Amino acid sequence: MEKLYEGKAKIVYQTENPNHVIIYFKDEATAFNAQKKDIIEGKGILNNKISSIFFTLLNQAGVKTHFIKQISDREMLAYKTKIIPIEVVVRNLATGSIVKRLGIPEKTEFNPSLIEFYYKNDALGDPIICYEHVLVMKLATEEDVKTIKEMALKVNQILRDFLIKHDIILVDFKLEFGKLDDGTIVVADEISPDTCRFWDAKTGERMDKDRFRLNLGDLAKYYQEVLERIEK
């Protein structure tokens, strides 16, 4: 198959169907704009399975995604999309970069949930941008931004309600969106412990990539724990 794209965590291949791609999940772990790297055996398998569960949940709830089906431990079949170069971060509790940037106390609850935009550009370090930047840089239209925000908040509510039933707090997460050939905006990329912050609702233990960022260890163990809980 023709390789269309290779990123830090995934490879995208063209299929015989021009509208379908296969996404292969790698075991690479990266942080701080790829300044920190490692191989975590089995991480790609776990992220593929977790993402497949979340995408299936969203599709069933009426949120359009690029996901069609999981086809192997490491691969999913998805609709081919043109990615909108904006990373959308939804925050329910303050932690990570927003605490450092703004001095907001750790674990401050955002009600309503906070949405931030980041320019998807590795060379620039994916900088935070505002709504006006999106329009001036022609990254998306006003209507696109409205749709993206509405979809992001709906994804947040669906995932929060689902995860808390499994004793997991959805602290924050990153979404990417793409457009199908007909212009329909869909949730794309992945939804996994690589792109979300998950805290154990009972112990507060981190169950996501912060274990790698902060040198807490046992990353694969906690990803496995997330998978086992949401499979029930």
TrEMBL record:
Domain of life: Bacteria
Entry's Gene Ontology molecular function annotations: ATP binding; phosphoribosylaminoimidazolesuccinocarboxamide synthase activity
Enzyme Commission number: 6.3.2.6
Domain SAICAR synthetase/ADE2 N-terminal: 3-229
Keywords, sorted A to Z: ATP-binding, Ligase, Nucleotide-binding, Purine biosynthesis
Gene Ontology terms describing biological process: 'de novo' IMP biosynthetic process; cobalamin biosynthetic process
Zinc-finger found in the keyword field: no
Enzyme class: ligase
Catalysis performed (reactions): 5-amino-1-(5-phospho-D-ribosyl)imidazole-4-carboxylate + L-aspartate + ATP = (2S)-2-[5-amino-1-(5-phospho-beta-D-ribosyl)imidazole-4-carboxamido]succinate + ADP + phosphate + 2 H(+)
Pfam hit, one: SAICAR_synt
Annotated Gene3D superfamilies: ATP-grasp fold, B domain, Phosphorylase Kinase, domain 1
InterPro entries membership: SAICAR_synt/ADE2_N, SAICAR_synt_PurC, SAICAR_synth, SAICAR_synthetase, SAICAR_synthetase_CS
Pathway: Purine metabolism; IMP biosynthesis via de novo pathway; 5-amino-1-(5-phospho-D-ribosyl)imidazole-4-carboxamide from 5-amino-1-(5-phospho-D-ribosyl)imidazole-4-carboxylate: step 1/2
Keyword Magnesium: no
Family assignment from sequence similarity: Belongs to the SAICAR synthetase family.
HAMAP family in the cross-refs: SAICAR_synth
Identification of the protein by name: Phosphoribosylaminoimidazole-succinocarboxamide synthase
Source organism: Sulfurihydrogenibium yellowstonense SS-5
Lineage, top ranks: Bacteria, Pseudomonadati, Aquificota, Aquificia, Aquificales
